[in-house]
User: What shape does this take?
Amino acid sequence: MKNYRSPVLFIPLIATLFLTHQIKSNNIGDITKFVKGFVKNPFKVGSILPCSSYVGEEIIKYYKKQIMSHHEQPIHILEVGAGTGSLTEVIVKYLRHSDHLDIIEISPDFCTILQEKFGNYQNVSIHCNSITEWQPSYQYDFIICTLPFVSFEKSFMNKVIDHLLNIIKSGGIFSYVSFAGIANLKKPFLKKQAQNDHKEKMSRLKKLRELYQIDSKTILQNCPPIRVYHLLIN
Assistant: This one.
């Protein structure tokens, strides 16, 4: 009898390879600070590791499509919750001189890292404050958000989403992430009121996608796996 090995046996190996790539694509010092930030405040950081470059390539793909179509007008991009800048590194790789990237990050420690990495870019501005306090004099063509929406209080999550919808142009692309399966995994451990709030938060995000979603993709080459949603706001 032939000895067939179950594909399940290869899952740990594949996961290890993806995790190795994710760690290699980030500075060890950045990873250490990111982990410390997660331990200190998991509800604000949302993940124990910075996102992989695979997530960055997916989340920036509509901006890449627009500049490849020879779009000549300046483009405004907003990145919310940049962390240590793992996605920012992918964004600036494609950022044209005529375009501008605003970065919003609430953690002073992460802001210090972002300043060290991107402070010399003339078309990148780093703002160390809450997104709800950010009042730009212009609207954005693209908003990239890695905030852990379902970890927030319901009222704050709604406030953030409403604010982002107010500062994006009609026809703009709003891309955000959700860690695959995490939202439903935590639900059984919540108290009744928290479960009700969780259900309402998930409902709000579902309605948002029903109104605007044009695309989504699960990135398995990330630890944990992550789903990227792209919304066309009109």
Observations:
- The chain is about 45% helix and 20% strand.
- Confidence is low (pLDDT under 50) at residues 8-19.
- Strands lie at 76-80, 100-104, 124-127, 140-145, 168-179, 213-219, 226-233.
- The first strand starts at residue 76 and ends at 80.
